[in-house]
Amino acid sequence: MRIIVTIKQVPSSNDVRVDPVSGTIIREGLPSVINPEDKNALELALCLRESVGAEVVALSMGPTQARRALCEAMAIGADRGILLCDKKFAGADTWATAYSLSCAVKKLAPFDLILCGRQAIDGDTAQTGPQLSEFLGIPQATCVEKLELHDGFAIASSDFGDVIRRLQFDLPALVTVTKNANFPRYASISGIAGACGSEKIEVWNAADVGADPSMIGLSGSPTRVKKMFSPRLGREGRVCDGSPSELAGKIFSALLERKIL
Amino acid sequence: MNQQMRKDVCGAAAPIAIFVEASSCGISRVVLELISKATEIASKSPREIVAFFPCFRNADLASELAEAGADRVIVAKDPLFDTYETGCYASAVSAMARSTLPDILLFGATPLGRDLAPRVANRLVTGLTADCTALDFDTEEGLLLQTRPAFGGNVMATIVCPKHRPQMATVRPGAMPLSAAKKYKRVGKIEFFDAKISPVNVMSRILDITRKDVVEAGLESAKIVVSGGRGMKGVEGFEILKELASLIGARLGASRAAVDSGWISHEHQVGQTGHSTHPDIYVACGISGAIQHISGMGGSKFIIAINKDRNAPIHDVADLSIVGDIFKVIPKLIDMIKEQPKS
Q1: Which of chain B's residues have a Cβ under 8 Å away from the Cβ of A230?
Q2: Measuring CA to CA, which of A75, A205, A225, B296 is 20 to 30 A from B29?
Q3: Nearest-CA neighbor of A86 among A66, A107, A115, A56?
Q4: A35, pLDDT greater than 50
Q5: How high is the ipTM of this complex?
Q6: The CATH number of the domain where A206 resides is what?
Q7: How many domains, in total, are found in chain B?
């Protein structure tokens, strides 16, 4: 059995600002880490490996620095780390990213399962997983908390907000994993000692995976970012001080004015 | 299968289509929010509003959609659509889009909408923007301006899809108000559509669906919300807020800090990882005003903040900032409301 875990390298915190002049994101000083829910996906893969036996392949797309995230994934326990890295991939939206990943997955075939984090803390889109499964034409289960593997099929419990849906589907399939699925393990000392060496990370470019140049990167992306800005917060608020009775009176009047009382 | 719908195939006056999410409880509220939004766009740039409704047992809801403002309701009725299944729904919605060639196709950013829309976008070979909180239409360019939070609400981005059609987005429930006009003079047409669905379209078998044992907090549709944060100090603090809320007919909200502390359940959480709400009045009690909270309630019409910390960021977004002790101010307010002569 082969399980592919998609990994995204993200800033360690989403506490970033937009530069009001350039309209770009200021993320200086923030170290890069593995996206939190990708760690839940990796943990699930490692648990499945322990119970049924599998090769766990960590797959990422990003700049050269993203090797670090894959080294960490290997230190935690992944058997292989593969980085899709090419200037031609840069600026991809979720559609072009999913297409690029699908080319790499096809090169890794045969595979049984793809596990993704439900969403990344930078983009918050939750789209790349389902789009990857559509490019591959395989079943999907999103927002999964529990997954059981059987002979040739799987049963997943998906958290759909007010309901839990249990669904059964054939393998190969793609599953997106939520933070409630498990508690990700840390890299072990022997894992850290054994893993990296970022020379262990296999790096593939666009030509290596046979990606159609018209479908990758910024030029292959259907969507464009028109602008970025900080959320508008300011209101013309009245600031009131006073005794508790005076302050309660101000609220009381405001409610009366708005016909709440 | 990957029939590409380019801009030249379907011009600027092509319809706005809305995917209808419904359950045994009826049509999801977000669908009505999307119809309101579509009506607003259609008033700037005249075009039809079309509802895509795969269904079986709840097919009767089509007439509600026609009355709610959809000019056409495309109904695909089949036992395979009785409960949501990714493969069948993706096939049906893609077929409806190929038949009606919409310029814009919108979904609620519910777990279901976010499961479905990416697969439909790929089949139609077009772009998709996730979890939008604002939509506008640029009539000159013919572009849908899709604004969404990223980085947990710290950054807003406006996304466009210049060359591919339809322009697709999932839209956050509660982020857009329902238009006040409920009844329209005209009632839309209901059309039955053969989605040519068959068991080959099925990707997964739904074994069971368990309703979570939760009480709906009703924040999305609330007119008034009384919300508490870390400053409420505990369960007892929320008891005071509950009393205030019941006196003024408000729903109860909370910040993530209060929910994480276990003082109130998650259904009440307002913000990036909770519910969005845009009531007429939002009363924030002991809430510092982290950006993740503001992203869920910043659209409220009138915000009252009560916090003894003058520098709390919540005061920057409030229309009425009360710098004072909640545990003294709120009981006084409750007394005043109780003493108010009944009219």
Answers
A1: 154-156
A2: A225
A3: A66
A4: yes
A5: 0.91
A6: 3.40.50.620
A7: 2
